[in-house]
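Most newcomers find our protein records easier to grasp once they have seen one. Sequence and backbone structure share a record, each on its own labelled line. To make this concrete, we reproduce a full record directly below:
***
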Amino acid sequence: MATADLILASASPRRSDLLHQIGVRFVVAAEDIDERQRPAEQAVDYVGRLALEKAQAGYRRSETELPVLGADTIVLCQGKIFGKPANADEAMAMLQALSGATHEVLSGVAIVNAHKSELVVVKTSVTFRTISPQDCLKYWQTGEPEGKAGAYAIQGFGATFVAHLEGSYSGVVGLPLLETQQLLEKFNVPIWQQPNA
């Protein structure tokens, strides 16, 4: 903990990779919260609340004064939220809904310490090419859609579905780096550090 400047309240390897990419020294302490959407809760409020609740829960459990970062990402298609598919049928249905259509990826990022909390929600527009049912099935069989919001990973094989993207690529992966860096700055968390510095 002595060399860490931040606690990441997420078990996502993609978020860890992105923080490493910009040279943040951190430790992982994943938080498990109730992720159910509240009645009439708008998607942007929902993803922001989850990010903030993860950060707050992480800070409450922490035995240090380090700031805690929480994040959440959802896919929104035709007003419907796509979370992580529970099985092949759900993944196939999600991918077919995204096929040939434009959807939004909402990424919430929150940082909390003893004195304040900050939250940002970043919206990215992603358009998929038309995907055949056969391609959906082949993609599911790669194992990549499991555990991914919207049943795809833009940083993996799922990149071949993307015809157009407007917004934050890293936000679609799971952590919008520009906005995250701006939040880190508010909490005096340095970036561009060597991992073992």
